[in-house]
Specification:
- By secondary structure, this protein is mostly helical.
- The protein folds into two domains: 73 residues, no CATH class; 62 residues, no CATH class.
- The chain has a two-stranded antiparallel ribbon with strand order 1-2.
- The relative contact order is 0.11.
Length: 164
């Protein structure tokens, strides 16, 4: 059981008096526990360095082998649900165009760490947890993001909070 799961379990006992129900699996954790031993430490780095899109499919940049086929054949010894989770995660990373690593990582931690520590979603809107700033209003111009990049960044950061 990871630290986050232990913390959530302890909080549920302390405040609710009963154990928490099973938590969704975290894609970052699945990657770090099952893939990082042989590949880049984090999925974002792995996808940027090793994965591309060919004919609408995620493939290895060098081999052009389907990432899905590789995982289904047993690479990484992942369960079917873990494979689906990682593939969704890899697609989301690929579609974000590496924007967070290009513009934000210099001042902020990795996207997942930054979002889960510093941000919150209220009524579908992303806010600074401590500043209470509306991210959609704040981000254009921040880190030299244009309005389209700011919109994409809001989506990237929301995804860190709403999907495991």
């Amino acid at each position: 059981m990871g630290r986050l799961a232990i913390f959530q379990w302890a909080v549920s006992i302390l405040f609710l008096g009963f154990p928490a129900v099973a938590q969704d699996v975290d894609a970052h954790l699945v990657y770090e526990q099952n893939c990082a031993g042989c590949h880049a430490p984090h999925a974002g780095e792995f996808v940027v360095e090793n994965v591309s899109i060919s004919d609408g499919e995620l493939v290895g940049k060098g081999s052009q082998q389907s990432v899905s086929d590789l995982l289904v054949s047993g690479h990484g010894k992942l369960s079917e649900s873990e494979i689906k989770l990682l593939l969704r995660h890899f697609w989301a990373i690929q579609e974000s165009g590496n924007l967070f690593r290009e513009r934000c990582i210099y001042c902020h931690d990795r996207a997942v760490v930054f979002a889960r520590r510093e941000l919150i979603i209220r009524d579908g809107i992303l806010f600074g947890r401590y500043s209470d700033r509306n991210a959609e209003e704040f981000l254009p111009g921040h880190g030299r993001l244009d309005s389209a990049q700011a919109e994409m960044m809001v989506d990237v950061l929301k995804r860190q909070l709403i999907t495991p």
